[in-house]
## 1
Amino acid sequence: MRARASRRVGAAMLVALAGGAASSHASTRQDAFARSLEHTAAGDYAAALESVSAEGVGALPRARARLWAFHHAGLLDEALAEAEAALALEEDAWLRERAVELSVALHDAPAARRHLTALESAEDAERASVAWAGPVGELVERDEAARRGERRARWVVGIGALLCGVALAALARGRR
Amino acid sequence: MRRDGALLALVALAGAGTMVVELAAVRLLAPWFGASAAVWTNVIGVVLLALAVGYLLGARLSAAADPLRRLGFVLLAAACATAWLPFVAAPTAALFLPDGTTLDRAATQVRWGSLATSILLFLPAALALGAVGPLAVEVDQRRRARNAGDAGGRVLAASTIGSLVGTFGTTHVLVPELGLRWCFLLAAGVLAALGIATLWRAGAAARGVGGAALLVVASTLLVRPAEARVADGLTLLEARQSPYQSVRVVERVVDGERWRELQVNEGFDSFQSVWRETPGFLGPGYYYDWFVLPAWLDERRDGAWRTCVVGLGAGTAWRVMESTLPGALALDGLGVEIDPEVVALGREYMDLAAAGAPGRRVLSGADGRACLAAAGGGFDQVVLDAYANQVEIPAHLSTVEFFRVVRDALRPGGWLTANVGAFDGEDPVADALARTASAAFEGPVWLVRVPFSRNVMLYARRDAPIPMGDAVPDGLPHGWSDWLRFAPALRRVESAVAPLTDDRNPIDVLQRRSLERAEERRR
């Protein structure tokens, strides 16, 4: 299978993440977080994960750093899993937006809709939710069209089989 | 005697028409549903069901006072139903597989969609063609006062011989030479001519109907058939029908640079080969770059790097390797590609080496396993990139016996690199292939995820360790040194038991499970 690649998000995400890092209070956390970002930028993803594995790092910065590492590495499913695991414990608009973004990249319509709904109710996320409404809506529409197509196909197969069965039975009885 | 021969010739041509419809049917569906075993099964199943109904319908119609006239009408009905197939295929398929459906999503819909489309498209024509046999038997029996067995045997023999000619003719002559549209139109034209001739003999009153049917068939010449859509931003350079598939080359421009993709049976978002104007690595998301890794992990740095690519396509693997091998290594390539049209398009649009070019040998129209077995040993690397119908790994290229052939073709320390369509290292397909390769190579193999893709690379080595994980050297290009230490992207597999053998190979079941697993993980 030669599936087309999903594309990287780009530098805007890193800037947003660095902003999240600056809001952390403890310097050790900041250091670990910043180191993780540096390792990710250098392509050393194993070190990036290692940097935020220490106990002193909070769950949220750790999740953000891990998500960023996986996303930058191109393992989008792992990045989404990271976001969802963290969001199950604590709501975070940045993680939620990334979850929307990753779901869209992975063509996962149910997840995209779920995360967008949650994003719409999050504080300070109005702009993000508006920005993602279009891509998510398009993805969901495509997904629903595909599901409708499958349902339609099942109906056609059912009716076709029924008609053929009736025709076979009727014709096989022969003339009286 | 002349009448006798004419009737049998008519039956033979109708038999040929049946096979044209059946074989070309799969090709007609391929741009939307592929041409996998599931699609073949659906088409054959629908045709068989239609023939069964048609036989009974023919039997019922044969009781009439004038079966010859009814035979004429049945042939005209078959002609009309066949003539319109190329024109209604696209809108019918779109009912079940809308535009924009992605490959992984569509794969789960192919079974139902292709079955429904087959019913709507091919059932009417096959049903009408099924009615020809019983009517011809009746005509023959009445005319010659033979017993039913004698008439039936002669008609069946003529029909089967016609089907035989139709089978070979469709695959090897009609589809490649005429294309699908003219293939169906030729079949329809022949059936219409037979129908009109039959009605002519049956009586003047039927001639008007025959003329009307001929108009219906002829009118299709004025209609342009709908084709699978080319995605926005792509320019279609050329499209061809090969004996195996529909093939086309499309081009897009990214940041001023031309990229070309060779697509087969395309309705989705995938490609079979890719060409970038600038030679070298293709970049994130393209697994071809990962074919070069063994040369960088190997100890050799000069001389010829003897490589056999099974599934050469349009030569993407060679194009990447030519300019990215380390040191003074020079590519010496043997490429095996089953589809000659793919090779021809590769030479025309993707800089694939011309026939006779030094250090490049292409075996087109040949099977990878047979070629590898006959190629002799001593290869530095065997690249396995063979796919059929977009997503299917050919069963005979996934067994322990095949991987033993690969192993024997390698020099000690030589490498197998296989592209596996899989979601991750735990994917059922990747897992089964890795364990099978491990059993054949009698040592551990590695699965490496390709970033930004749904491909996993499988690496095996003959009688030598693979320096991955903790053993990976520093300084590899393309960020490989870091990647090959990144545990979530790697999986080491070692198994003495091969799950896939020539005798028992559930690779198609595993591929279905792979998609079902991905779908379950979404819920």
## 2
Amino acid sequence: MSKLVSVVQFTFGEQPFLSLSEEVVRLDLVDQADQDATIESIIGAKVIGQPRTKLILGEGIILLSCAKPLLMTLEDWRFFHLPSLLQKGNAPKWLRGAVLLADDSAPPAVRARALGFWIDLHSLAQSVTV
Amino acid sequence: MSDSGDEAPSGGQTKGDTEKSLGVDSDCKHLGKDQEVIATETYLVARLGDTRYAFAAKRIEQVMEAIEPVRVPAVSSCYLGILSIGGRIVTVVDFAALMGLTDTQEDTDEDAQGEASLRRLIVLEGLGKPLGVVADELLGLQDIPLSAIRVTGDDSSTHLGQVLVGEFEFNDRIVTVVNAEAVVAGLMKQSEAPANV
């Protein structure tokens, strides 16, 4: 699949996540004290690193990320739907799939770490009580 | 045993019955001038924890060095994560935990860490879908006569009974035969359950 898209990349723990930049109206840095553990509990990743960031969606819903988001474009990106074994009852519906963030010819260990998750921010926000 | 190889290997079961129970389509080996036929199946024997499992070689797409999969948020701990292998996303599972045979736990003791170099990822194919299983150690490919396999998967009403379908003795240890297609079929059935998130 060859496609050019504008995305926001952010991380929970060390795991990269991506969402369409058009779903985010504004990005704001927030104080450390202004944390939302709800996201952590849903993502299931230990949140480390600074600074934290507000992702403000069109509907005014605020999500917090643990790292400074990266506005980027993905060219020739490869998107994978989650394997059917993980879909429906096993994976949350806000998880659209996985994105290969590096060259597929890279060594396997590097390839493994280069998978990011494509998130439906609106769906994620709906599953969070803010 | 006749040339057809359809004689009962044990317990009154025909070769066809045994193959069906084990989820395999066996090879036949001709031995000696009498052309006696022995139905065999090639299995990859692997150690997962303290248990030896046999996976039909025909159901194995590839074996590779075990690398840490990318954990998928908010899924059961039976799913270790996903990997990009050869341009496909492969689901990696904790097989023993998936079958409810043991609790999922982190390897924290020194012995487990010392065995890390022996770990291999076995990519199985079932119903056209790849499935990764992490083995603590590979014990080799073995041609096993079907007559040497005791069919145990009689209780096909349970997922466990459909997956763990037989056993044989190898190096004085019992090896449990796994039906890879049944593993995938069970996971597919689970995935059709109503979403809980």
